[in-house]
Write a structure and sequence with these properties.
The chain is α/β, with parallel strands linked by helices. Helix content is 61%, strand content 13%. It has one domain: 3-Layer(aba) Sandwich (Rossmann fold), CATH 3.40.50.300. Bound molecules: adenosine-5'-diphosphate.
């Protein structure tokens, strides 16, 4: 089995975070969640955290000028080079996708697969209202979902054009969804 470099895409509330943790453990790769990185920076009060905090609370997107170098630096670290990575929350814009392609190219690396964990917008809205996270105000939820449709959904085509996209139905039991995800990854990594 080669080193896996994967992207998982999905609407906020699709279960992407939960499934990503399980997948990273199952495949021994690093789970790189840009949301987690930013939340940790906010909690620590670093310069990055101070830049990101207000944007995150309002449901906006942190700038590509911040996000691309952040991921570029992280994917050059030994643990990811050796064990691979599951990118969760990045790329979120066309510029981030191009940035990812360039940084992998520069390292002579390619993505294994980009998975679209597919859950309809009505369903994810219900789920997010129910979970009540601090940055889940109704306005912020709506804004994030709108931004997803505008900025991130077009990336599905971008990955499809490169033959990298696999769509997985995110409805159903967590373990069933997990099995579907593993089947797609194993098929791509055969
Ligand atoms: P969710 O999937 O619920 O939006 P995340 O944990 O992925 O949660 O991200 C939380 C917030 O962090 C986002 O709403 C956004 O403000 C910021 N963020 C995370 N990743 C990125 C990214 N790649 N580009 C821009 N902003 C990001």
């Amino acid at each position: 089995m080669s080193v896996l470099r994967m992207v998982i895409l999905g609407r906020q509330g699709s279960g992407k975070g939960t499934q990503s943790l399980r997948l990273a453990e199952a495949y021994g790769c690093v789970h790189l969640s840009t949301g987690d990185v930013l939340r940790a920076a906010v909690a620590e009060g670093t310069q990055l955290g101070r830049q990101a905090e207000a944007i995150m609370t309002s449901g906006g997107l942190v700038g590509d000028d911040i996000m691309i170098p952040l991921v570029q630096e992280r994917i050059g670290k030994d643990d990811i080079v050796a064990n691979g990575v599951l990118l969760d929350g990045f790329p979120r814009t066309a510029d981030q996708a191009n940035g990812l392609e360039s940084m992998l190219d520069a390292r002579g690396q390619r993505l294994t697969v980009a998975i679209n964990l597919d859950v309809a917008v009505e369903e994810v809205t219900q789920r997010m209202m129910a979970r009540g996270r601090e940055d889940d105000s109704e306005d912020a939820i709506t804004r994030r979902l709108d931004l997803y449709e505008a900025e991130t959904a077009p990336l599905l085509d971008w990955f499809a054009e490169r033959g990298l996209l696999a769509t997985v139905d995110g409805l159903g039991e967590e373990s069933d969804v997990f099995d579907r995800l593993k089947a797609v990854i194993d098929q791509r990594n055969a």
